[in-house]
C-alpha cells in the first residue's frame, strides 16, 4: 500500500470516527429532548441521521477494506447488499436535505400557517416518499444485476461489467443522479434563495428602524453607534453564511463523485483510481458534516447536549460521593470496635 492509499485509508477512518460520534450524539439529543421530537423537522433529521449511521457501519468499512486490500472486500451477496444500501442511502440523504430545506422555506416564507402546513403527519408522508423514491433505483439495479464491486471507487456500488449494456447502464446512472442529486440541488437552491430573500427584507426593515433610532438619539456615545452598525453588518451576513453552508457542503461532498461517475460513463478519458476513491470519500464525508450543519450547532441541540452532559456529571459525582462515603465508613468501623 503506497502513501496515497494510506492517506485515503486514514481519511476514511477519520470520517468514520467523526460520523459515528456526531450522529450518535444527534440520536441522543432526539431521545433526550421531547421539545425537539415534537417538531416536524425531527423526522427529517432522524431519517438523515439513521441513514448516516447505517452508511458509517456498513459501507465505509467495506470501502476501507477495498482500499487496503485493492480487491473486493466481501462475497458477492454481501457486496450486492452493500451496493443496494449505498445507492439507497445516497439518494435518501440528498432527498432528506431537500425535505429539510422545504421545511425551512415554509417556516420562513409562511410563518403564520407553518403549523397547519407542516404537521408531523405531513413530515411522515414526505419521509415515506423519500424512502420510495430512494428505493426505486437500487431495486431496479438489483433486478438488472447492476450492483457489485467497482474497482475505481474501491466500493460496492452501481456497476456493470457487460460491455453490451454500457449504454443502458449509462442512461440508468444519469437518470439516477438527475432524480437524486440534481433534483435535490434545485430544491435546495429554490427554497434557500427564497429564505434568503425574506431574511434580507427583514434585515432592511430592521436597518431602517435602527438608523432612525440612531438619528433621534443625538447624545448617544460613538462606541454604541459603532456597535449598532457592526450588528447590522453581522445580521446581513448571518443568513447568507448559513445558506452558503447548506448548499456549499452539498456541492462539495456530492458533486465530485457524481461528475466522476458521469465522466466515467460518457467519456473515454482515463480516471485515476486515487481520484475515484477520493471522490467517494468526499461523498461519505457528508455523513460526518450533516450533524453539525443541520443539528448540533442549533440552540435546541446545544441545550440538549449540555443537559445530557450535566446529567452524566451529576451521576458520576453521586457515585464518587457514595464510594467516598463507603470508604470513610469502612475506615471508622475498626476504631469503634
TrEMBL record:
PROSITE patterns: G_PROTEIN_RECEP_F1_2. Its main location: membrane. It is found in: Cell membrane. The keyword Disulfide bond applies. Keywords: Cell membrane, Disulfide bond, G-protein coupled receptor, Membrane, Receptor, Transducer, Transmembrane, Transmembrane helix. Residues 22-294 form the G-protein coupled receptors family 1 profile domain. One of its GO terms (cellular component) is plasma membrane. Coiled coil: none annotated. The keyword Transport does not apply. One of its GO terms (biological process) is adenylate cyclase-activating G protein-coupled receptor signaling pathway. This is G-protein coupled receptor 26.
Amino acid at each position: 500500500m503506497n502513501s496515497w492509499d494510506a492517506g485515503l485509508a486514514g481519511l476514511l477512518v477519520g470520517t468514520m470516527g467523526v460520523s459515528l460520534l456526531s450522529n450518535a450524539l444527534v440520536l441522543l439529543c432526539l431521545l433526550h429532548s421531547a421539545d425537539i421530537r415534537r417538531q416536524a423537522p425531527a423526522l427529517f433529521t432522524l431519517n438523515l441521521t439513521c441513514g448516516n449511521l447505517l452508511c458509517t457501519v456498513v459501507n465505509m468499512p467495506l470501502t476501507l477494506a477495498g482500499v487496503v486490500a485493492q480487491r473486493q472486500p466481501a462475497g458477492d451477496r454481501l457486496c450486492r447488499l452493500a451496493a443496494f444500501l449505498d445507492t439507497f442511502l445516497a439518494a435518501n440523504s440528498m432527498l432528506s436535505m431537500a425535505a429539510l430545506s422545504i421545511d425551512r422555506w415554509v417556516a420562513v416564507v409562511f410563518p403564520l400557517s407553518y403549523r397547519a402546513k407542516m404537521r408531523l403527519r405531513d413530515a411522515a408522508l414526505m419521509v415515506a416518499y423519500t424512502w420510495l423514491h430512494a428505493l426505486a433505483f437500487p431495486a431496479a439495479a438489483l433486478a438488472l444485476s447492476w450492483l457489485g464491486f467497482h474497482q475505481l471507487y474501491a466500493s460496492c456500488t452501481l456497476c456493470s461489467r457487460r460491455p453490451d449494456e454500457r449504454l443502458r447502464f449509462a442512461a440508468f446512472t444519469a437518470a439516477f443522479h438527475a432524480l437524486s442529486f440534481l433534483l435535490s440541488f434545485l430544491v435546495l437552491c429554490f427554497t434557500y434563495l427564497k429564505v434568503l430573500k425574506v431574511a434580507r427584507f427583514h434585515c432592511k426593515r430592521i436597518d431602517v428602524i435602527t438608523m432612525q433610532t440612531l438619528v433621534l438619539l443625538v447624545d448617544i456615545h460613538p462606541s454604541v453607534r459603532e456597535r449598532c452598525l457592526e450588528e447590522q453588518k453581522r445580521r446581513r451576513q448571518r443568513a447568507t453564511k448559513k445558506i452558503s453552508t447548506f448548499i456549499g457542503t452539498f456541492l462539495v461532498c456530492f458533486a465530485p463523485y457524481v461528475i466522476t461517475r458521469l465522466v466515467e460513463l460518457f467519456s473515454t478519458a482515463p480516471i485515476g483510481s486515487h481520484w475515484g476513491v477520493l471522490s467517494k470519500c468526499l461523498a461519505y464525508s457528508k455523513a460526518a458534516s450533516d450533524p453539525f450543519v443541520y443539528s448540533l450547532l442549533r440552540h435546541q441541540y446545544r441545550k440538549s447536549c449540555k443537559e445530557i452532559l450535566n446529567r452524566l456529571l451529576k451521576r458520576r459525582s453521586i457515585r464518587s460521593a457514595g464510594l467516598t462515603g463507603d470508604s470513610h465508613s469502612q475506615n471508622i468501623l475498626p476504631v469503634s470496635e
